[in-house]
């Protein structure tokens, strides 16, 4: 059971996350040419949106939790090194896929989300993926390679790793590929590798990534202000983490069809 102290820590983390998002939003407003006086007007319009759209605030994890279960995963790991859910699969990166990955990383909107950056040259990137402390997968959508997801800083002793991901073509963002691939990668980390902890570093304005990870139960571990320099701009870094028990509690269930079969056989009450 959660104690009042634990609740207040969670609340503090959430408040810190909201402050960070507000800071990034404020910077964006300034980039759009909004003056200090106009910020108050924007705040008023934001409230109008809340009133118009209602105040539905169902937790993101509750929503993802309805969307995904481990029972939906097609696990061909031992035979074919492939994991799939819906139209999305992940499989270890092969040398033949390196040119496409190099191409994806040329887009600043992709490349500038990673620190330290990925190597830009083909051979250097292939060598980078072969390092034992890394494990990278190509993301496929409908059989076509569309992105990359994987582990940095694989720490066998502490059973933890850093997750990185990208969907290569920005026009394909927002279609659900990232969250399906993330679900598959977390299954790899917690069920196949049996690791204990997965963490991510997200750069301040990457609200999409923060939302996506929050939906899978990731919680804020820390904020590092003006921590890295990317193309002459100092960026804040957010670290979020997820542990195996939290993820398994949320997602380790049979699929709807499996549950019906178990119910019919009297194995589930
Ligand atoms: C982060 C990234 C991998 C997400 O992949 P994606 O396929 O675009 O993500 P999805 O379509 O699965 O959306 C995931 C969640 O992002 C959030 N999201 C989507 N569009 C958003 C937007 N315009 N603004 C804020 N959040 C948004 C939502 O919470 C969404 O989940 P929901 O649809 O269930 O509400 C992709 O945007 C990307 O490659 N970005 C560049 C590289 C990067 O930043 N990588 C992360 C560093 S580790």
Question: Brief description of this entry?
Answer:
Helices cover 45% and strands 26% of the residues. It has helices spanning 4-31, 36-53, 60-67, 77-80, 98-104, 108-111, 122-130, 177-192, 207-215, 244-251, 256-264, and strands spanning 74-76, 82-85, 88-92, 135-141, 144-155, 160-167, 197-203, 219-230, 233-243. Strands 1-2-3-4-5-6-7-9-8 form a 9-stranded mixed β-sheet, sandwiched between helices.
Characterization of the model:
The chain has 269 residues and is α+β, with helices and mostly antiparallel strands. It has two domains: 1-57, no CATH class; 61-264, 3-Layer(aba) Sandwich (Aminopeptidase). The chain has eleven helices and nine strands. A nine-stranded mixed beta sheet has the order 1-2-3-4-5-6-7-9-8, with helices on both faces. The radius of gyration is 20 Å and the shape is globular. Bound molecules: coenzyme A. Coenzyme A is lined by residues 110, 113, 164-167, 173-179, 200, 202, 206-209, 211-212.
């Amino acid at each position: 059971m959660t104690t009042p102290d634990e609740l207040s820590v969670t609340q503090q983390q959430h408040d810190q996350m909201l402050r960070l998002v507000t800071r990034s939003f404020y910077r964006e407003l300034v980039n759009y040419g909004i003056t200090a006086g106009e910020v108050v007007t924007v705040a008023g319009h934001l409230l109008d949106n809340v009133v118009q759209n209602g105040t539905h605030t169902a937790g993101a994890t509750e929503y993802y939790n309805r969307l995904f279960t481990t029972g939906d995963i097609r696990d061909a790991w031992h035979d074919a090194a492939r994991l799939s859910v819906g139209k999305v699969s992940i499989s270890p990166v092969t040398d033949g896929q390196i040119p496409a990955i190099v191409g994806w990383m040329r887009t600043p909107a992709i490349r500038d989300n990673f620190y330290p950056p990925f190597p830009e040259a083909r051979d250097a990137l292939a060598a980078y993926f072969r390092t034992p402390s890394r494990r990278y997968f190509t993301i496929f959508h409908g059989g076509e390679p569309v992105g990359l997801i994987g582990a940095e800083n694989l720490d066998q002793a502490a059973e933890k790793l850093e997750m990185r991901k990208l969907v290569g073509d920005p026009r394909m963002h927002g279609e659900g590929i990232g969250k399906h691939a993330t679900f598959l990668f977390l299954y790899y980390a917690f069920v196949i590798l049996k690791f204990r902890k997965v963490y991510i570093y997200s750069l301040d304005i990457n609200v999409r990534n923060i939302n996506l990870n929050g939906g899978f139960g990731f919680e804020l571990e820390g904020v590092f202000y003006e921590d890295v320099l990317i193309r002459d701009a100092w960026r804040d870094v957010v670290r979020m983490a997820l542990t195996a028990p939290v993820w398994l509690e949320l997602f380790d269930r049979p699929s709807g069809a499996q549950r019906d079969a178990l119910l019919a056989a009297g194995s589930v009450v």
